[in-house]
TrEMBL record:
One of its GO terms (biological process) is protein localization to outer membrane. Pfam families: ABC_tran (PF00005). It comes from the Bacteria. Belongs to the ABC transporter superfamily. This is Lipoprotein transporter ATP-binding subunit. PROSITE patterns: ABC_TRANSPORTER_1, ABC_TRANSPORTER_2. SMART domains: AAA. One of its GO terms (cellular component) is plasma membrane. Keywords: ATP-binding, Cell membrane, Lipoprotein, Membrane, Nucleotide-binding, Translocase, Transport. Signal peptide: none annotated. It comes from Oleiphilus messinensis. GO terms for molecular function: ATP binding; ATP hydrolysis activity; transmembrane transporter activity. Residues 9-235 form the ABC transporter domain.
């Protein structure tokens, strides 16, 4: 009997409405999303469509106006702050357009940080894991460099290693190559494709890059408040 794939993350009836002044601005409503184990989903859509808003809600960083987000079966926005942070720390890795590395810490220390915060393993194991990940993203010679001593592409590589250090069930990436020049963006994309193929982690990547999107298992387009599965051949 075939085993049905496990859902690692789901959004159910998600609505986000901003109340700026007197006019409410609904970005999306009644939005559904399911992410299965080991899959790679790309989300595309024009600027302002709500991709970052959606990713932040799915990752438990931003609260939906209504609806539920389940991470590993737990209703993330109904958890108390501390439990929500713990769940996020263990189950979700984030990579943003801007690296968000801590400037006063080295590459290695930045990658170890989620281990320290979540106490997911002892520090020695965490450091070994962080070093191994930095080697895998091609930075074995840059372990002790601070973010200011790294190039833009190298900083994103560190951010990717950091997102993976706690073996999360999914990694959410918001235009991870959007702030890089074309050549560096292609290099980081190639690295992402390689890692996506190697890890059992699921990946959701918001991207404007159609070549990268095309390599996903499923592509969604977010437009005028609707998240629609998109046929790859239409790219
Ligand atoms: N804190 C906020 N208050 C009010 N409106 C907001 C807030 N944050 C985002 N918005 C609005 O929500 C909409 C979606 O923003 P979002 O950043 O999610 O878009 P996006 O699809 O990620 O765009 P981009 O491709 O440019 O990153 C935009 O119209 C934006 O102005
Ligand atoms: Mg965005």
């Amino acid at each position: 009997m075939a085993v049905s794939p496990r859902i690692v993350l789901s959004g159910q009836n998600i609505e986000k409405t901003y109340l700026e002044g007197k006019t409410p601005l609904t970005i999306f409503s009644n939005l559904q999303f399911e992410l299965f184990s080991s899959e790679f989903v790309a989300i595309v859509g024009s600027s302002g469509a709500g991709k970052t808003t959606l990713l932040n809600i799915l990752g438990g960083l931003d609260k939906p106006t209504s609806g539920d987000v389940l991470i590993g079966g737990q209703n993330v926005h109904r958890l108390a702050e501390r439990k929500r942070c713990q769940l996020r720390n263990r189950e979700i890795g984030f990579v943003y357009q801007f690296h968000h590395l801590l400037p006063e810490f080295s590459a290695l220390e930045n990658v170890v940080m989620p281990v320290l915060v979540g106490k997911s393993m002892n520090l020695k194991t965490g450091r070994a894991k962080a070093q191994e990940l930095l080697e895998r993203v091609g930075l074995s010679e840059r372990l002790h460099h601070k973010p200011a001593q790294l190039s833009g592409g190298e900083r994103q590589r560190v951010a990717i290693a950091r997102a993976l250090v706690n073996d999360p069930s999914c990694v959410l990436m918001d235009e991870p190559t959007g702030n890089l020049d074309e050549h560096t963006a292609l290099e980081v994309q190639a690295l992402m494709q390689e890692l996506i193929g190697q890890f059992t982690t699921s990946f959701v990547v918001v991207t404007h890059d159609l070549h990268l999107a095309k390599t996903a298992d499923r592509i969604f387009r977010l437009e005028t408040g609707v998240l629609k599965a998109t046929d790859k051949s239409s790219f």
